[in-house]
Amino acid sequence: MPDSDSAQQGVLFPRGAEGRRGTMETNRAVFADAARAADEALAGRIEATGNWRSGYAPLVRELTELGARSARVATDIARAGLESVRQRMVLRRGDDDRPLSDAVPLDGDEPFATETVQGDGERQAELVVPYDGRLLRRDGLRRQLASWVARGIIEPSAATAVGEVIDHPDWVRMDGLRVAVIGAGAETSPLGVLSSWGVEVLALDLPRPQVWRALLQTARDGAGRVHVPVRGSEGEVADRAGANLIADLPDTAGWLDDRAGSVPLVLGFYVYADGGLHVQATAAADALASHLLAKDQALAPAYAGTPSDCYLVSEDVAGDSVDRRESRGLRRTLFEAPLEKVSGGRLYAAAYPKLVEGEDGRGWGVADGLVSEQGPNYALAKRIQRWQSIVAWSEGRPASFNVAPPTWTKSVTKNRLLAAGYYGARWVGMEVFQPDTMRTLMTALMVHDLHDPAATPPALDGTHPDELVDHGAIHGGYWRRPYNLHSTLVYTGILGLPEAYAPKLR
Q1: Nearest alpha-carbon partner for 442 in 308, 302, 312, 309
Q2: Does the residue 187 lie in any domain?
Q3: Is the pTM of this model over 0.85?
Q4: Which of 75, 219, 390, 484 pairs as cysteine with 226 (C-beta 3.0–4.6 A)?
């Protein structure tokens, strides 16, 4: 990021040794601090990596493996990483840079006013999931969930959780809760789903009139109440609406203080941004949560994890991947196994060549979906979200973290090579979801997490935090696929090229 500056305000990377607000130095330092909580040698190797942008992926995988040692180690890593973010990222106001850890509670100078939209649509009283041109509900939805489980597209726990929402249609009203949706205009945002259920929502997104016109129409089409932060009182709401979470963090915190009141608040984060902005926005959301907790606000953070990351998974998941590999029949015997051999294991490699053993003798697989091209800032932003959830669980506070599937978002479709990989993914047993299907399923999982007492054991109660991270995962086949993701990228990319470059062939 440029270091220019009096114009830069809000949540920023700290100045480095040369006075610039570069991202890589801080990114690497945060991962090193997280590793140091469990392994000084790994922390040292992270700090010694000269080109962090190209060398981060295998070290982040090692950091993930460290968590397999025990629940305590996994929690210590999360605490250390999160504390490092809070100590290193700064809140700049005027000419003052203050670590986020010292800036809480936040004190806004120009509080937002509020506009409220009451939807006039008919409330949807049960879970209905759009899929492949159909609307799935009740038994039809259960059959599709069972099909996804059988194909390894979702975890059985996801089917169970969604099934419980089907059984408790009253849950979708989210009575007694308010939901703040940060990134309300994102393709992954649950705003439309929540509004259709009649939920009260606090909608936050950047002050962009075109975005807000669409958001306000979504609110009007729904059946709930949507509250919007605005500046001024003259002119169209869309022209006055919005808050920049990075630049307007204190004022946004004040607005949420006012709107949440004494009602428990769900703080849902659905922002995606390029490069360092993604880390800045995620750090701002964490500071916002810390501020609300300091104000004694009952709070539950909610995040959608990415499948393109590293996760610890159970022996059952790893074993299922092996079974799927061996069941590929002639494709494996005549084509895939020979290519694996002649390539020295670079093609069609096993997804789980070994298990990582914990101190209690439990075996874990490492589901490695990290794609190095996405960059270390994307990896850090998504890891911060996981760390915050783990710390909340360790303190006995509710949090909703569920792994979301690969999805046909605009950021995917505009990148032809990435789109080619997505089109070819079905040839290795994966499924890429449409945004409306993904949004509805992930919102249903959030509803389950906030209503089922078993979703948040008191202070973990002996549960390994990665069990909760994995619970309810809708990973699109990433975890149970028969081969290591990286060893089939060329194959799936080539098979998907015609559809990516010639849309009429789809």
Answers
A1: 302
A2: yes
A3: yes
A4: 219
